[in-house]
Each structure stands twice: as C-alpha cells, then as structure tokens.
Design a protein that fits this description.
By secondary structure, this protein is α/β, with parallel strands linked by helices. It has twelve helices and ten strands. α4 runs parallel beside α5.
C-alpha cells in the first residue's frame, strides 16, 4: 500500500469508527461480508486479478460479479482462488434469458457461482401489467433451466418495480407469479427504501425468498441520495436481525458511484464488521 493511500485509509477508518451504530441486544455480527464488484468496476476493467486481491486484503470473503471483462471462466476461477474469495453469485443481462441462457449457465458453473441473477428489466419488456406477468413467466422458465444444472436463478430490484401499474405493484406481481422453488430474489435495500417500501414487510410476506441482499445506504427523503454505508438513514441492524425470515445468507456491499471506490470499500467493511444486531 502506498503511503498516500495508507493515510487516506487511516483517516477514513477513523471517521467510520466514529459513526454511531444502532443499539442492539443480541450481539450478533455478520460472519461473512461480500462486495458487489460493480462498486469497483473501473479497477476491474484495468486489472481484474489485482482488484480481487485488493478486495480480499480489505477483509471481504465473498464477491458478486457484474461482468468478467473478457476473461475466460478458467481465468476468473483461478483469480478467485488466488485471492481466497468465493463468488456465490453473478449478475447477467436480461437479454441472455432469451439468447444464450444455457451458455450463461455453463459459464457460471465453470467459474463456481451458485446463483445467476438478472438485475434489470428493459422498459419495452414491461409496458403494462401483462408485460410484468410475461416477465414472471420467463423467470420461471429461466429458473427451471438453472435448477436443472444445479444453479439458483434470482432477480435484483431497483425502485421502478414499486411504482403501481394498473393498480398493482410489479414487484409483488413478480413475487406472486414466480415459483419459490425456481426464482429467488436479491433485495437491494437502498432501492427498496427509495421505492417507499419496507424490506421487513417483504421478509414477512414472502419468507425465505431473499437469500441475497445489497447493502447500500440512503440519505433519506425526499431525494434518497445514495451515501456511504452508515452515514444514511437505513437501519441495517433491524433488517439483519430479521434476516432469517427473509432467508438471507449473503450480504453484498455496494455503492453505484463512490467518490473513492476502495476507500468506500474499506469504510463499509469496517462499519459492517462492527455492526451488532
């Protein structure tokens, strides 16, 4: 680590240590903290292997991919092993469901992922309520093919899924019209809160359907600006305390546009490592 980088890290860690944490009684903490690699995508594009090594040095033990930057599956698997990281999940394009899905699944299996997730639905695929129902049908088919090769299929939300369409909430349409045995969900806590919804309500209504969460913070209403972890308004301790209801096993830190990606990653890891729930 360069001296300037070390000084930046030390200052950031000191500030993180000073952040207030929710008061909880159980004393539980996350035993494995993951990172969505979209957070460090520019570094991944320059040096995938080196970036994975830096992520592991911070203390992360799991990562979630958002692209492989032209590396073949064997090279990605080797880079993960060299860094001592597990990669339980990856994000893939919606379009791959209709074109190249079997190859996408084969790639995921070769790398060692356990789950393949779609993280965006193009507007043209969901013009109305019937469109959302067709998406749910496609998800069921994708999940069936994933399960046949030993993988989990899941969907990651943003906030547009919570805007009512013809009197119904699309996110709830997806939850209701997909088979729990075939389709899981990755709840992005930030986007869910920005969409005006309570993550814990979904844990209660749809237990054990959320094996993955994205851990990112909001400055609160009205604009819900995305902020560094622990500097916003989302009560992660309360959510994590109920994670068993959601079936959550993997917690991926993320920030879409961090000012300094690796400083953010270090501070976020330090915050979550200390967080009791």
């Amino acid at each position: 680590m360069h001296r300037r980088e070390m000084l930046r890290w030390s200052a950031g860690a000191a500030l993180t240590a000073a952040l207030p944490l929710p008061r909880c009684a159980s004393g539980r903490r996350l035993d494995r903290i993951g990172l969505q690699l979209y957070t460090v995508r520019a570094a991944m594009a320059r040096d995938l292997e080196g970036t994975l090594a830096r992520v592991a040095e911070i203390g992360y033990r799991e990562v979630e991919f958002a692209g492989y930057f032209d590396r073949p599956p064997a090279a990605v698997r080797t880079a993960l092993a060299d860094a001592g990281l597990d990669a339980p999940a990856t994000h893939v394009p919606y379009e791959s469901l209709a074109d190249g899905w079997d190859q996408m699944l084969a790639t995921a299996a070769a790398i060692g992922h356990g789950a393949v997730l779609v993280a965006w639905i193009p507007r043209e695929a969901r013009p109305d309520l019937d469109g959302w129902k067709r998406v749910a049908e496609m998800f069921n088919r994708a999940g069936e093919r994933a399960r046949a090769v030993g993988l989990t299929f899941a969907y990651h939300n943003h906030d547009f899924e919570f805007a009512p369409v013809e009197g119904e909430v699309p996110y709830e349409v997806l939850l209701g019209a997909t088979d729990p045995a075939l389709v899981a969900f990755e709840m992005d806590l930030y986007w869910t809160v920005k969409g005006g919804r309570d993550p814990l309500a979904y844990f209660t209504m749809h237990p054990r359907r959320f094996p993955f969460v994205h851990v990112k913070d909001s400055a609160g209403p009205p604009d819900h600006r995305m902020v560094d972890l622990g500097r916003g308004t989302i009560d992660f301790a309360a959510i994590f305390a109920r994670s068993a209801h959601g079936g959550t096993r993997h917690y991926f830190v993320e920030h879409d546009e961090p000012r300094d990606p690796f400083t953010f990653c270090r501070d976020a890891f330090a915050y979550l490592r200390r967080l009791e729930f």
